[in-house]
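Working notes for the structural subgroup meeting. M.R. asked for a predicted model of this chain before we commit to crystallization trials. I am recording the input and output together here so anyone reviewing the notebook later can reproduce the run.

Input as submitted:
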Amino acid sequence: MAKPAHDTPVTAFISRRVQADRLEEFKEILNEFTPALEKQPGFISIRNIEPGPETNDRFISLVTFSNVSGQIAWEDSPVRKELVARLNAVVEGDTSIEWIGGLDVLASAHPTPKKWKTVVALIIWINVLGWTLGPALSLVWPDSAPEALRAFALICVNVGLISYVFLPWTTRLLNKWAARAE
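Returned structure, recorded in token form:
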């Protein structure tokens, strides 16, 4: 199992076939990985993909670290060893692990929120900012200004704040909910 250079990001692609009657037990154990990983130096993200035709009925996990040293420390940790031992009790056959290094892996390792969940977050922020920015704009914008120009300014500020401040913050805050499979 060759690993990338120590100073580059690394993602482990882990593939397992779970015993059909023990999938829920497997998921419960797998859910214990995230809090343990979040305490690990260098941890960036974990993404789990449910078994299905596109995964050859295998459960796929993508675990990304900022460097190989962080990944090695995780592999050697007693917490990981205990969790893996419990997972192996509900897995059929061998577990496959493939290492990929470099920055190109980072983009694909982050979960993508479902579109409807992004829409919900957008609707909330549009309303909250609309209710607060409208009165705030009245305080600094002259009443004699054309209504169309006033609306344009309000929309520009609203879109800018949502795009660069509130939506990224919301995505990080609600990442587990936003990317969870239905």
